[in-house]
């Protein structure tokens, strides 16, 4: 169990994370106690990059829980109303995943880029711009430093934040500067 779940159970977010929450029935349910969400639901290219195998578990794969929470959200319509669904991803970040992010592990950064790409679609003044700029930074880092397997999975987050894969640094800065800020 994640170390923040006990706090969330008693917070205003509690209904988001319970099995009985109306909006979270079926694929969107994000239970505190259910970490096994189905091997067969992860696309093959993601299974390969994140090392997800038939016997993978949250205990033997640091990406497992976050990936299984993120995958169903990739095919849903993102709106202001889906913010709570997107926030479930954060509560599924494990201490191991946080550590991998701190050392700039490419796979962990790719998961973060996917989540930030999804968050940038929720057009709320307090999240969209920041999610978009952080997604852009992750994509740029992964484009420059990632291997071909990682770069092959960059189109989704890159499209979400306006990053153009393979552009030189100078070109990227002019593209980013020309993008209008949300709400302007």
Fold and architecture overview:
The protein is mainly alpha-helical. Helices cover 49% and strands 0% of the residues. The chain is built from ten helices and no strands. Helix 5 crosses helix 6, helix 6 packs antiparallel against helix 7 and helix 7 packs across helix 9. The chain is globular and about 40 Å long. The N and C termini lie far apart (42 Å). The relative contact order is 0.10.
Which descriptors would you attach to this protein?
184 residues, mainly alpha
Topology diagram in text:
Blueprint: H1 5-9, H2 44-50, H3 64-70, H4 83-91, H5 95-102, H6 106-120, H7 128-145, H8 148-152, H9 155-161, H10 169-178
Helix pairs in contact: 5-6, 6-7, 6-9, 7-9
Unreliable sequence segments: 19-36
Helix run count: 10
Series of secondary-structure elements, N-terminal to C-terminal = HHHHHHHHHH
Determine the mean pLDDT. 77
Give a quick summary of the entry.
Helix content is 49%, strand content 0%. It contains ten helices and no strands. It is globular, with a radius of gyration of 17 Å.
């Amino acid at each position: 169990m994640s170390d923040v779940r006990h706090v969330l159970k008693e917070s205003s977010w509690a209904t988001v994370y319970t099995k009985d929450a109306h909006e979270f029935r079926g694929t969107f349910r994000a239970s505190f106690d259910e970490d096994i969400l189905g091997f067969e639901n992860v696309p093959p290219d993601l299974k390969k990059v994140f090392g997800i195998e038939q016997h993978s578990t949250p205990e033997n794969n640091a990406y497992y829980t976050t990936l299984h929470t993120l995958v169903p959200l990739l095919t849903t319509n993102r709106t202001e109303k889906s913010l709570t669904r997107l926030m479930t991803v954060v509560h599924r970040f494990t201490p191991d995943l946080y550590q991998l992010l701190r050392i700039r592990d490419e796979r962990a950064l790719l998961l973060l880029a996917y989540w930030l790409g999804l968050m940038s679609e929720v057009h709320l003044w307090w999240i969209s711009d920041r999610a978009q700029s952080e997604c852009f930074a992750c994509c740029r880092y992964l484009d420059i430093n990632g291997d071909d397997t990682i770069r092959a999975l960059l189109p989704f987050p890159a499209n979400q934040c306006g990053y153009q894969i393979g552009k030189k640094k100078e070109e990227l800065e002019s593209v980013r500067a020309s993008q209008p800020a949300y709400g302007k």
